[in-house]
Amino acid sequence: MRWLVVAACLAAYPAWASDWVSTPVAIEVPSGGQIDQPVLQLTRCHIENAKNPSSCASATSGESPFEGHPLAMPMSNVSPLQSADAPNRFIYSDPTRRYAHAVLGDDIEGGSLVAIDAETGEPINKLVLPENLVFEDRWPRAVDLDGFGKAHVVTLLSEASTGAAVAVYEFADGKLSLAAKTPAIGRANRWMNIAGIEDFDGSGSASIAVVRTPHIGGTLEFWRWSKGTLTKVAEAFGFSNHQYGSPELRLSAIEDFDDDGVSDLALPSADRRSLQLVKLSSRKNPEVDIIASVSLPSPIDKAIGVTRNGDDVVLTVGLENGSVYAIHRGLPNN
């Protein structure tokens, strides 16, 4: 029944919804390679110079760069800076094997969350989890959810018997504390992956988009942050944003795909063989609407990149078979 609802939303969309197409580009990114900035630039060059792609320079894509820290657990990144003057960053530390799931390719998870000074790299405060909890994640996401200048840290927290949940921590007065948490999935070894954090409905409040159980019929959920709480405002079945056993979490991208001034989300279908462009329909009682669905010849397994040049938006997707496709509106003009 949920599939019928999604199909109905797509059918109701204007004609331009079907104008999004996929174009193969002469780039190969093998397993373990990344859709990084050189690949994004090369993809756009191939689309803009469709009649003469040989004029485009080549690009080399390597492993995803990790910004290491002595306290960080293996395969974990330091949270990006919120702004140039942001004083603090965050890492997962105290690696542990007490939660044997290995959804990210190994069985090492984070046992603590550490705030560090962005300038000196020195630890400021550490929040240590109890034995039944781990951070089943690769990096904390430092964001200002309400626009008031307070640091919020968005994480993926897994419990031994009930599985994963989204947990938001606050950092105030030099101390980390739990601010809000979504309900856990309800079963051990069940996971979710964050797809994006943005104001997806134009309300002025950020929402956390997450795919619940992305490997077994994933459900896309939007959790709105307001006054220190998380409220689920919309959901739709039939999505994924992760390949089981992969350390790559970035199978999604945020952009305004329908040019209405509000951010939208791109992520794979449940089988990862098509790219779905979705939006929230309204601020009050929103539903997940499909802007476009673009089929691909192989499952998406790499980070999804997006570039914009004026009104021209190009998404770059890397597939399991090593090929790279550009997703864009309409056919190249040249």
In words, what does this structure look like?
This protein is mainly β and 334 residues long. The chain has 2 domains: 1-64 and 191-334, no CATH class; 65-186, no CATH class. It is built from 2 helices and 20 strands. The chain is globular, with a radius of gyration of 20 Å.
In short:
By secondary structure, the protein is mainly β.
Instruction: Kindly estimate the percentage of residues that lie in beta strands according to DSSP.
Output: 35-45%
Largest sheet: 5 strands, antiparallel
What's the number of helices? 2
Number of DSSP-assigned strands = 20
- Give the topology string: H per helix, E per strand: HEHEEEEEEEEEEEEEEEEEEE
Report Rg.
20 Å
Helix content: under 10%
N→C terminal distance: 42 Å
Computed structural class:
mainly beta
Shape: globular
Average pLDDT works out at 83
